Structure formats: C-alpha cells, structure tokens
Write the structure tokens for this entry.
Amino acid sequence: MTDAALPPRPPITFRTKALYGVGAAANIIKQRGITTFLLLFYNQVVGLPPAMVSTAIMIALIFDAFIDPLVGQISDNTRTRWGRRHPFMYIAALPVSIAFYMIWNPPVGWENEALFAYMLVCLLTIRLFDTFFELPSSALLAELTSDYNERTSMISIRSFCGVAGGLIMQLLVYQVFLKKHADGTGGLLERGGWQTYSIVAAVTIFTIILISSAGTHHQIPYLRKPPVRKITVRAMVKEVAATLNNRSFVALTISGMFMNVSLGLKTALELYFNLYFWGLNQGQLAFLTVTGVIASVIGVVAAPKIAAKLGKRLAAITMFFGAVVALLLPIGLRLLGVMPENGTNLLFAILVVDFMANGAMAIMTGVMLQSMIADVVEDAEVKTGRRSEGLLFSADNLFKKIVSGVGVFVSGALLAYVAFPQGAKPGQVDPELLRNLAMIYLPTIGGFYAVAISCLFLYRIDKSVHEANLRALQEGAVEARTTDAQTEAATPAAAGPAGDLAPVTPRP
C-alpha cells in the first residue's frame, strides 16, 4: 500500500510520541541490568569465574545478533489486522519478563558448569524475546514520520525515556534494593537484594512493553502493508543483499561495530572502575545516577537543535568526539598522577562534571545515529523499490551486537589477565593491579572509538538528499499508479486485484 493509498494521517501528537518513546525504557532496564550488574553479580556474588560469565554474555549477544535480521525481515513482510510490528511487540512482554526475573535467581549449590548453562539459557531467552519487541518498535519510527527533523525529535524523546528508565532502576539498586547500611549489611555483594530488584524490574519491563505497544496501536491503519507475494529463500537473500548494499548504511554499520566493542568493554568494567579504581561508595554512585538523568535531559533538549544547525553527520561526529574525551580523560589524568586522591570531595566533583558531560554528549550521539539510520530507509527504498525498515534496523543491530559481545568477553579476559580477586572489597585491591588494568583499558577502548568516529565521515545523506529521496518516491508512486490505471482501462477483463505496495523505479 502506497502512502497515497493510506488514510490521511493525523499529526503525530506528543502523547503518541511519548508512549512510543517510553518503550525504550524496557530495553534499557534490561540492558543496564545485564551489562552493568550481571558480571559483578555472577562473579562476586554467585561465584562464577569472570571468563565464564563474559563468555555466556558474548554467546547470547552473538545469538541475538543473528536473530535480529530474521525477525526484521519477517516483520517487514508480516500481514495481520494488527499490522506488521505490533503482534511481535505484544508477544514479547511475558517471556522476556519471566526470563529476566529468573536470571537473577539462580539455584543455590549448583556446580559452575550447571550455573553457566542456567545463565546462558536465561540470557538466550531474554535476547530472543527482547528482539521481538525492541526491533519492531524501533522500525516503527520510519513509518510514523518521514520528516527529517521530526525523526530526530522523536528519537530524542525515546532516548530520554530509555536512559531515564535505566538510570532510575539503577538508582533504586544503589539506594533501595541493595543499599549499604550503616551496620555493614546490605550492598551490591549481598544476594538477597537482587531478588527484590529482579521482581520490580521484571514487572516494570512487562508493563512498559504493553503500554508502549498499546500507545501506538491506533497508528496501525496509517502504516504501510507489505505486498502480497510469494518469495523464495534465494530471492529473499538477494533482496537483503541489495537493501544492505548502501554506502551510508555500511559507514554507519562499521562505525557502530567499533563503537559497540568499546561500549561492551566500557559498560562491563564501569562498575569495577567506580568501586575499586575511584573508590566511590554507593551513595556517590546513586548521586552519579541522578546526574545521569539530568545529563539525558540536556542531551534530549539539545540534540534536535544541534542536528538542525550542524546537520546530523557533523553533529554526531562532534558529540561523539566530546563524549570519548570526557570518558577517557579522568583515567588518563589519574595515570599521570594529576587527579585528586580517592575519597576527596574535589575528586568526586570532577567525576560528577565529567559524568554529566559524557552522558549528555553520548545521548546526543545516539540520537543522531538512530536518526541517520532512519534516513537510510528512504535512500534504500529509492534504490531497491522496497520498504525495509525492520531489515535495516536489525542488520545494524546484528553487527553491533556481535562485536559488543567481543567487548564483554574482553572485559572478562582483562579481569582474568590482571588476576582481579574474587569477592574483592573496595579499598582492598592492590593499587598496582588497578593501574595495570587502566593501562590496558585506556588505549584499547580509545583506539576502537577513534575508528568508529572516522567511519562517520563516509555517511552521505544530509537533509537535501533525504528530501530528494522523498520526492523520488512520491514521483515513482504516482507514475506507478498512473500506469496501473491506464493498463486497467485498456484491458479491464484481464485486470486483477491491485497489490498493496506500488513499486518504485530503482535509482541507478
């Protein structure tokens, strides 16, 4: 069904944008739990060796990466009375929530191999059904609006909801579920608090998925339907290859691969650095979490304005570079011996300012990159004649997730390499060991980020190109409808039912 054949779409209201955006919180709550806490929980609380934990996470990420394109291609071609995306979104809610609860409540007394298998099964289930929601939900963006700047605005709201939801749940971990009490009880290393966290997080994920899916349900009549057709596996593979053979998409994908290796490494070790390298207590970690919410507000408000002024590509490069500098500078200065001592107010103040700067610029970078992926949808459609939002978003995720698994695996390998002690208490780890960890961490993560930023210079879709693509699609749709009408008038007896999707003449 062409855009012209769809019912006139009413303007997208702020309520719809907010309900669409809040769906990101379910994914980020799940993601932050796994990437920030799971290594620490299974290593320091349950007692699994770090290499086993990081290996399970890496396997699950690689599995998830290959599931993504399959779900994306299926959802692109699904025809139901609830559209292409929403059936998958509703189905995901219960299984992903149950699996998330189970992963934080492993059986007591099992051998390491059995615990590894239990953890891996839970992770694979979480990844599978999270893909059923997150990927179709992300693909909805390109269908809800084709406006160059409105896409950035909607992604800003979605990014804010995701970051805020993840940080609020993280704050609850530090200050409620696993709060360190004055008598020494509680804290991140006490197992009981993780059960309460898992119940609240699982119920929250379930509720958010249903609310966000229902919040965009009324948009189904205005969304495109795939054509009725029979397609072989071979033809589908050719379509996938043709769609992904897009220079700007390839540039974003390669950039995302290097970025996510670094993100996997950073996220897995962030809590280790905060607790052991900087010597922060849980109250300070909670305060950092609050400043993260403030930083996300700054990023969300500023991102559309900066993108409109600089263009998405230059804005993404600028903010990306600034975020990396903010991330690495404090560790580098500590290695040079010019940072204040641990436990001082000055050190914490510096880390707070740095954390806010990194968070705000990272949010803006993420908004730009997601909006740039959305703009590839029309560019690819002009070239191939097919609308493939789900495939493009899933393929982008495929490569990112594969290599982010590598980043998580490397984090476990680094901890094993420096012989990081199990059950370590903050303040009791050998400073030389921490220095060795930082010396390996800093150039590795910095090098990957440098490659990621460089690749963004190859992206070629600016506002003028995007608007030219929209005109080409409109002209192609009009031409196709005119041809069909002339053919039907000339041979009425031979005319069959019109397809749902008018073809667009591919661009050379």
Confidence is low (pLDDT under 50) at residues 493-508. The two ends are 24 Å apart (CA to CA).
